What does this fold into?
Amino acid sequence: MIYLDHAATTPVPDEVADAVRDALVKQFGNPSAQYPYGREARELVARCRETVASALGCKAEQLAFTSCGTESDNWALRLAAHQNRHAGRHIVTTAIEHSAVLEPCRQLADEGWEVTYLKPDRDGSITAEQVALALREDTALVSMMLVNNETGCILPVGEVAALLKERGSKALLHTDAVQGFLKVPFSAATLGADLISISGHKIGAPKGVGALCLGERVKNPRPLLAGGGQEDGRRSGTEATAQLVGFAKAVELRRANLDASLAHMAELKAYALERLLALDGVARVGNGDAPHILSVSLVGYPSANVVEDLGSQGICISAGSACHRGKASHVYEAMGLTKKVKAGVLRVSFGPETKKSDVDALVSALEAHKNSRFPML
Ligand code: PLP
It folds into this structure.
């Protein structure tokens, strides 16, 4: 199998799977229990927290584990809205956020909040100046992703943090860094965002684990899940110890070779871009700089057909975003792509394991697809 869909999810390395199995079998105690099994599990969770927090660049106590990036995003938006509910009821976000941000924004709009959605340009970029223009006295929250999951565009979150500071804004800044964590260099300590969402399965951890980093301006964060008061009262639910062990092990592995693996992905992306653009009828979509995501269009060829055709040959890529399950993507819509370009958008995404020969196989398969019986729009 040729797997070129690392932005959707990533393979789990053996070392991670072994660590997860070990934790499941040998360290199954409930971290809240008072006997040694419980204490062991509690210490295990604490070590996992140290590992992930250190990679993110925050203090361990600032990191709360969640069940996924989606939960982190939902929680961040809800807690920021709650904290600043008396400061105003205006939210600034972008039209290209993941649905894990857009849906809670829609819910908040139903509850009377006003949401401004910043539009990208044709390349998928959004600027800090756009935020500056949208920011109001009553803005309670700005939510801007770090890396767009469909185009690989890096958004100016650091500049927005500086802008909020300069304006003395009460607005909390949330960033969905699910596609940025261990893919583009940043540190929670210097980025300036108040809330940072990350997810394990984009970096080789099992699905079903994520985290939210809560900065100093976040006061008494209102839990999304109320109950037994785990995670220092911030997120109830018995800790998913095995998942957390997998998360920490995946972080360790990625971190150990980070510079080399990011350079490797960037090189593959450049190679893929060059080879794909040499094909007749292929256009680049967006100008994303993230090393692991490349978006192109086989103009006029419905991407669902392409993905299925390649899938049947064991080549996995995505038609825009896997999360949309065939629906036209709001991201490409917002970028104002033409109908034919939009129809043919393909997302190719790389991981540390990807090889040049994987890219070669993709290019040959796309060429064959173009020359086959598949209909154009
Ligand atoms: N945010 C972004 C940018 C994503 O790409 C994804 C997943 O694709 C999510 C959030 C959701 O993360 P999870 O799958 O862990 O819920």
User: Anything to note?
Assistant: Residues 68-70, 73, 98, 100, 145, 149, 176, 178-179, 199, 201, 210, 323 surround pyridoxal-5'-phosphate (CB under 6 Å).
